Automatic annotation (TrEMBL):
GO CC annotation: plasma membrane protein complex
Membrane topology recorded in Swiss-Prot or TrEMBL: Single-pass membrane protein
UniProt protein name: TonB family C-terminal domain-containing protein
Organism from which the protein derives: Paludibacter jiangxiensis
Upper taxonomic lineage: Bacteria, Pseudomonadati, Bacteroidota, Bacteroidia, Bacteroidales
Signal peptide per UniProt: 1-21
Any matching Pfam family: TonB_C
Amino acid sequence: MRRLPFHNLVCCLLISLFATSCIHFHHDNEDQEPATQPNSNQPSKSTIREYHNDPYSDVYTVCEEMPQFRDGDVSEYLKQHIRYPAAAVEQGIQGRVIVQFIVNRFGKVIDPQVVRGVDPSLNEEALRVVRNMPRWKPGRQRNQAVNVKYTLPIPFWLK
């Protein structure tokens, strides 16, 4: 029975040493390249680093004030800037492309991704239009500008 307190002390020290080494291992490997090919639907490495260095890196899905498109109605912007791909017109392809992106705390649209696509040509056009959007009015939580994930349906209908 005399060895029990010593045994508990040794176990606690080993556990804390293991946890500390895991934390250091995680931080040391953050800047290494991923082992697999990067996927075009995943955020870029520079964006991920930007979030690691940003003290306001939380991304909200809902906040007190959602982001707002500054230049009026976003559907009007889409109507004016979408160029329907000729191949899709010829084949009669139409539908709604769902794009998700983050409106960062500065109002910039970053990391657009197709959540539900219709056709590769329509998906690429939707991403092009979203990437070229002007800055938005950022979302706010507790009177602070925050990063907000936003989902936007982009319609492609032939008339």
